Amino acid sequence: MRLDDLITALAGIAPEANAGSWDRVGLQVGDPAADVAAGMLCIDLTPAVAAEAAAAGCGLVVAYHPPVFEPLRSLRADAGWAQRRVWDCVHAHLAVYSPHTALDAVRGGVCDWLAERCGAGVSVPLEPAAAAGGAAAGGYKLVVFVPAEAEAALRSALWAAGAGAQGRYDRCWFSSAGEGGFRPLEGAEPAIGAVGEQATVAERRVEVLVPGTRLSAVLAALRAAHPYEEPAFDLLRREPEPADPATQPGAGRLLTLAEPATLAELAGRVGRALGVPLKVGGDPGLRVGTVAACPGSGGKLFEGVDADLYLTGEMQHHQALDLVQRGRGVVLGGHTNTERPYLPVYREKIRATAAGALRWEISEADAAPLRWDAAGAR
C-alpha cells in the first residue's frame, strides 16, 4: 500500500486538524510514494524500537509521541539517541507517523478510553478541538432571483459547481414564486424588456447552500447560466451550528458517571485496566460523581476544572497537594502507562480501514522509561 494512502487512512481515524495547535502530528519521516507492507505501533520511538521494526520488515512506525518535536540542528549517526533514532529510520527506509493529540481528541480515542476505565457515563472535552465545527460547518446561503423558465437550468449549473449539498444529501434547494421589476438604463443590454421601460417578470427565488471552498466556482456558474445581464442575488454567511459537547472531539474529558463510586473503587478499576501500581491521593471513601481525565500529563489542562477525581499519568507535586487538601481525589498511573494500553484498541481501528490490508505489530521494545522497584523500597 502506498504510504500516502496509508496516511490518509490513519488520518481518517484521528483527523490531524483536531490536534493541539502546539503539536507536531502527521508524517515526519518517509517518502509518500513508497510502498509499505507492514507497520509497527509504539508510544515512544527509540533506537531499539527502530531496530525492532526494521527486523520485522515494517515500512512504517506509528509513534504516538512525535520523535521530531523541536527543529533538528543536524541529523547524524553519531549524535545523541534522539537524533540517532531518526537517522536509523531514514537509513532503514522506515517511515514515521505520529497521531499524538489527534488520537487523544477524537471520540473513541485515548481520552475516551482512559475516562471510561472509571465506568459508564457522559463525557465532554475539557478543551474542545479548535477545528471541530458543528453539524453545519458554516459556508454561505445563496439566494438568487431568476425568471421562472430559467430556474431549472440555473439550479443544475449551481449544483454542478458544488452548491446544494447538506450533510448526506446533495442537490438541495428551495424556491418560491414572486414578481421582479426593473428598468434598464442607457447602455444596458437587457435579456428581457427594453431600455428606459419598466419591466415586470414572473420570477423564482432560489436558495441553495454553498461551501466556502466552492464559493468562487458557484458564483462564476451563476453568472454564466443566469439569463440576466446583472443577476440579482444575495449571499448570506452562515455560522456553524453549535456542536454537541457529548460528541465533540477535544483534549481531556470531564466524565459524569452514570453510577457514582468511591475513590477506592475507581482506583481499583483503573489499576486493573492499566496493569500497573498507581499513586492515589485523597480519602478512599470519597464519593466520586465526576472525573477529569487526561492521558499523559493533564496538569495544565486541569486548571480551572472542577471535578471530584483527577485521573492522569503525572502531575506536579503542588497541584496534587492542592487538590487533595481541597477534598478531591487524584489518581496517577505514570505518563505512558495511561497511553500504551490503548495501542491494541488503535490496532483494531486501523484493521477496520483500508490500512487493515497491512500486517500490524505492536512494539515489544517500547516501554515506560521508569518502573516500580519493590526491591529498592525495602
UniProtKB/TrEMBL annotation:
The keyword Metal-binding appears for this protein: yes
GO molecular function, one term: metal ion binding
Record's GO cellular component terms: cytoplasm
UniProt KW Repressor keyword: no
Pfam families tied to this protein: DUF34_NIF3
Signal peptide positions on this chain: none
Complex and partners: Homohexamer.
PANTHER family membership: NGG1 INTERACTING FACTOR 3 (PTHR13799), NIF3-LIKE PROTEIN 1 (PTHR13799:SF13)
Protein name: GTP cyclohydrolase 1 type 2 homolog
